[in-house]
Amino acid sequence: MKPIKDFDCVQMKWDIQQKLLEEERLLGPEEAHRQRAERMRNDPILGPFLKRMRAEEIRRATERLQQLVAKD
């Protein structure tokens, strides 16, 4: 006999996906994307992480550009 689950991650993923699809249906794809991005930026965990990742992308791009300029 299967044990009874307290938490079903597959069901959670399904529920979240349905919520996102409904949001996109109501708002349209562009506005839904904008709102999701805003929620991620304001999230207490994802926000700082995304900020660090963006800063690292900028640092690497700047470094590559400096290397290209130095070659000329």
Set out the fold topology.
Elements: H1 9-27, H2 29-42, H3 46-71
Helix pairs in contact: 1-2
Name its key features:
72 residues; mainly alpha; 3 helices; elongated
Our measurement of the CA-to-CA distance between the termini, rounded to an integer number of angstroms, reads 71 Å
User: Unreliable stretches, pLDDT < 50, 5 or more residues?
Assistant: none
Sheet having the most strands: none
Order of helices and strands: HHH
Question: How many strand elements?
Answer: 0
User: What overall form do the CA principal axes indicate?
Assistant: elongated
**Number of separate helices:** 3
- Tell me the strand percentage band: under 5%
User: Over all CA atoms, what is the radius of gyration?
Assistant: 20 Å
Q: Work out the oligomeric state of the chains in this entry.
A: single chain
Average pLDDT = 94
Specify the structural class: mainly alpha
Helical amount: over 70%
Can you give me a brief rundown of this structure?
This protein is mainly α and 72 residues long.
Characterise this structure.
- The radius of gyration is 20 Å and the shape is elongated.
- The chain has a domain at 25-71.
- With 72 residues, the protein is mainly α.
- The model has no long low-confidence stretch (mean pLDDT 94).
- It has helices at 9-27, 29-42, 46-71.
- It is built from 3 helices and no strands.
